């Protein structure tokens, strides 16, 4: 996605 990988849990790649 546009957001970085799991920057703020916006992506399902690396949720904090």
What labels would you give this structure?
16 residues, little secondary structure, globular
List the topology elements.
Elements: no helix or strand
Description of the structure:
This protein has 16 residues and is largely without helices or strands. Helices cover 0% and strands 0% of the residues. It has no helices and no strands. The N and C termini lie far apart (16 Å).
Tell how many strands the DSSP assignment holds: 0
N-to-C terminal Cα separation, in Å? Answer: 16 Å
Radius of gyration based on Cα positions: 6 Å
Structural class: little secondary structure
Helix share bin? under 10%
Largest sheet: none
Contiguous runs where pLDDT drops below 50 for at least 5 residues: none
By DSSP (H or I, 4+ residues per run), the number of helices equals 0
Which band does the percent of strand residues land in? Answer: under 5%
Shape: globular
User: What is the residue-mean pLDDT, rounded to a whole number?
Assistant: 58
Summary?
Helix content is 0%, strand content 0%.
């Amino acid at each position: 996605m546009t957001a970085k990988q799991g920057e703020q849990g916006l992506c399902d790649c690396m949720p904090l």
